[in-house]
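ugh ok so i messed up the first submission bc i forgot one of the chains. this is the corrected input, ALL of the components this time, i swear. 434 residues overall. if the numbers dont match what u have on ur side tell me asap before i send this to the collaborators (the ones from the other lab, u know who)
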Amino acid sequence: MRLYNVAVVGATGLVGRKMIQVLEERKFPVGNIKFLASERSVGKEVQFGGTIHPVGKLTERSFTGIEVALFSAGATVSKEFARHAVQVGSLVVDNSSAFRMDATVPLVVPEVNRKMIFHHKGIVANPNCSTIQMVVALKPLHDRWRIKRIIVATYQSVTGGGQRGLNQLEQELAKEPVVEKKFAHQIAMNVLPQVDIFLPDGYTKEEHKMEHETKKT
Amino acid sequence: MRLYNVAVVGATGLVGRKMIQVLEERKFPVGNIKFLASERSVGKEVQFGGTIHPVGKLTERSFTGIEVALFSAGATVSKEFARHAVQVGSLVVDNSSAFRMDATVPLVVPEVNRKMIFHHKGIVANPNCSTIQMVVALKPLHDRWRIKRIIVATYQSVTGGGQRGLNQLEQELAKEPVVEKKFAHQIAMNVLPQVDIFLPDGYTKEEHKMEHETKKT
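and heres the new structure output, hopefully the right one now
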């Protein structure tokens, strides 16, 4: 079986760790694997395939020999480092918002537009989580009747705020001081009627994502 | 100042205790006060006005001398006992769904239709909690533009399930066995996409309440 050399960028984050778990569960044919993160996480370890792997520092030269680079370390990191991966021939699968609206980057949800994945120029992106779930449900309706208008209410989990969001929840539930506030307000036993920041037009960034990414997908 | 003799039916429930708290906070001019509940709660005590009051068993004769009877013990209790209160001249304020759609019972939200309160025949009802909040927001819009259609998504608290709902949440969070399941599924760290039971037409009882009570209010 053909094996692939894989890098996971953001390997210590909530999504990065889930990616690693899925690579294992699905028995993805991994050759060499590299776990990359910011300087802050260097020294941490990741368990994969029965062995302990060190977390390496992400640099411009991290991608030599890497065939598939999974990015989930935020848009800033993707914007800075994805091109270095592409330059050495890696296929970047980017979970951040960095390239989603880039016309040269396919925005792919396998259940909706899987064939788009072949039209990449080194980077493939996926929509944000709310959009993915929504378009999977809407696709067959759209194919059959052509949707003209959607009214959406989301019920989003604290994990959408990543490890820091989860930490805040757990610290609040344990009545411990919150070390680093991800949410401006208490999140334990609460629901916040806002996801991401408000933009000048009065919509939130999340609302914009759902609108624009859905149309592109 | 004129004082009123008050009874609270369902005095040990989550809403009943909140009613008692509000009577105190607002300095409602209470003369005598009676705390009533089902047999199961007799023996419990309620603190009010600096003294401890026993919880009495609700019977057909509980309302003699009572001028205002606040009911919050569920529709079955209201249907059985409200008329006994009315018979002896009490004004019943009913928080349950028992009489909301009764044409002879005003369904009142003070910010929306306060004047309706004077047209009672012994019983005044309030809508369910979701409807109340919604109509307060909609009233000025409706007055100005006449609302034709509303699309509603609610984000409801566990306390909507009363003391048993809250107990389930706290037991699940503490990883204790759940003594009495109010929600069919885990509620801690979760959100359930269903409020109240489904009716034969595919809508839930909560959805029906919001539709019909809003039109009546």
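quick check: The radius of gyration of chain A is 19 Å. that seems consistent at least. The helical segments of chain A are 14-25, 75-87, 110-113, 129-145, 162-173, 205-216.
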